[in-house]
Model the fold of this input.
Amino acid sequence: MAKSGISVTLNGFEEMLERIEKASGNAEKYARQVVKKSAAIVENELKAECTRQNIPDSIINAITTEIENSATSVSAQVGWKLGSYDPRKPAIGYLAVFLNYGSEKRTTKRGSNRGRLIGKKFIATAKKKASKKVKALQQQMLEEIMKELGA
Done:
């Protein structure tokens, strides 16, 4: 009885595996680069938006970026450190949160009206502006990795 079917011969498979190995070795390097550059974009947009919203310089200058490396991932945190909350002397991070989100109507224990702080929403605005730039950067890095693969 004759066999029917399709046979496939793969040529250049070893070469492709070598390219994938090389690219995966560089992928970690690219991941670190894209996280650092993305964090810088977010930080710059956040500082620019704070300046546009007339946030005090002491709060703008307290913006920090922390990049964390683990065995399986790289991540970044951009913003303010909060620490423990002291209502008599709140950390700068809490002041930024209050300015961003605002507050409810405030009164004293005796009932005197202290008004309401209207939030400026500068964090969301900065994230939105930075998002487009970060996506473009990530696309560019992905294209560089694909070039190494020869795709």
